Amino acid sequence: MKFISIKEAMKKGSGKVAIRGWVYRERGSNKFKFIVLRDVSDIIQCVIKKEKFGEDKFKEADKIQIECSTEIIGTIKPDKRAPTGFEIDVDEFTVVGWSDNFPISKHQSPEFLLDKKHLSLRMRRLSAIAKVKSTVLKAFREFYYKEGFYEAPMPILQPIQCEGGSTLFGVKYYDKQMYLAQSWQLYAEAMIFSLEKIFCIAPTFRAEKSKTSRHLSEFWMAEMEAAWYKLPELLNSAERCVEYIVKKVLDDNLEELKFLGAKIDKLKKVKVPFPRMTYTEVLEFLEKKEGKKIPWGKDLRTIEEDLLGKYFDKPVIITHYPKEIMAFYKPKDPDNPKVALCVDMIAPGGYGEIIGGSQRDLSVKDMTEMLKSMGEKPEDYDWYFDLRKYGSVPHSGYGLGVERVVAWICNSDNIKDVVAFPRTMLRFKP
Ligand code: 4AD
Ligand code: MG
C-alpha cells in the first residue's frame, strides 16, 4: 500500500489507509494501545487492539514510546473524541526506529529546550513556524522574479565592513584577515551594472553584543538592489514585497497561523500603502503621544520602535534618519544635508526593524570622509569607488531580516524559535 500523509488520510475519511510518522503521544491499557501519530501534515489517533494482534505482537505495541517512528496500516473513521476528529483502527504496524525516553516535554524551561534543539525542533509549534519561514523565503523570491529581478549570490567571505566594524566576525583567511558577510550589498552594487535588478537570500553575520529577543549572530537576509531606483521606487518595492509575503503566508499557512495564535485579523490589514514618517516626524509623534523626548540625532532604539509599533497594525516606513549616524553608503538628502536618503521599516507589535535600506551614495568624497571618521582605510574601498567612476547611476536597495519577519508574522516571543539552530552571543550549540 502507498503511504499517504495524515492530512490526506483524514481527507479520505474512511476505508484503508497507510501512514507513517513519529509517536506524539501514547497511552495503554491491558486491552488497547492508543497512539497519536505525527507527520509533517498533522496528528491522528490510532488504536491497536489486543484482541486483533494477540499476546506477543501486542507486547511490542505496549513498548512503543514517544518519538518511535512507526508505519501503520488501518481503517480510518471519524471519531469526535479523537484529537483531530479521526481515528485509525490499526490492522498492521511496524516500528521502524525505537525511541529511548524522549527528553522533551511541555513543561521544560526554554533554556533546556534550546540545549536540546536537535530534538525540540520537532515540536509542533516550531514546525509550524518553520513552515511559515519556508513560505516567507519562497514569497520573497517569487515577488522579485515576477518583478524581473535576477537572483545573484555574492561572497560570504569579505575583506571589508559594510555595517560598521564593531559587529564584524573575523575569519583567518590563510595568513590574512577576512570577515563574514554583514551584507550582500556592496558586491551587489557592482553586479547591477551587469544585471540591473538583482536579489539574494543569504546568511549574514553580526557579532551583536545585545542579548535581545530580536538579535542573532547569524541570520538570513533577503536583499535587493536595483539600478535607476531612487528612494521613492525603493519604498514602493519594499512595501509591496512585504504585502506580498504576508498575503502568501495567509494563503498557504492559515492553519499554522491559527495554531500559533498569530494575529490573523491584523495580518489581513497589511496592505499598501503603509504609514510613512520621517525620522523627525517620529520624534514629534513620540513626544506628542508618549511624552517621550528623544534628542534629534539619536538613533531610534528598540524602546522607541516598540512605542511606535503600538500605534499601527501595519509596518511603518521611516525615512530620512540623521546622516551622521548612518552607514557610510547612505547619501545626504540634497534638500536637507543633515538627513540621509534611507529607510527602516518597523513591524507592528514590538517586532522592531524588519527592513533597512537606502539610496546609495554616489559621492566618493563624502564616503571617503565618512569612512575616515569611522577609522576605516578608504583605500580598502577603491574597488567600490570604481563603481562611481565607470557609468555610475542612481541605485538603491534594502535588506529584510527573514527571522524578524517570521517572528512578527507568527507572533513568536523570541527570534530563537524561528531558527533551527540559533547562534547568539551566548548560544552556539548544538
Ligand atoms: O539594517 P541592516 O543592517 O541593513 C543592511 O545590512 C543593508 N546593507 C541592507 C541593504 O541595504 N541591502 O539590516 C537589514 C535587516 C534589518 O532591518 C533587520 O531586519 C535584519 O536585517 N537584521 C537582523 N536580524 C536578526 N539579527 C540581527 N542581528 C540583525 N541585524 C539586522
Ligand atoms: Mg538597520
3D structure, described in words:
This protein has 14 helices and 18 strands. 37% of the residues are buried. Helices cover 33% and strands 27% of the residues. The chain has 2 domains: 6-97, Nucleic acid-binding proteins (OB fold (Dihydrolipoamide Acetyltransferase, E2P), Beta Barrel); 114-418, 2-Layer Sandwich (BirA Bifunctional Protein, domain 2), CATH 3.30.930.10. The protein has helices at 6-12, 50-62, 110-115, 117-120, 124-146, 185-195, 231-252, 254-260, 264-268, 279-290, 302-309, 364-373, 382-386, 402-410, and strands spanning 15-28, 32-38, 43-49, 69-78, 86-97, 150-151, 157-158, 170-173, 176-180, 197-205, 218-227, 276-278, 316-319, 332-333, 336-340, 342-347, 352-359, 395-401. α5 (124-146) packs across α8 (254-260) and α5 (124-146) packs across α14 (402-410). It binds 4-amino-1,4-dioxobutan-2-aminium adenosine-5'-monophosphate and magnesium ion (MG).
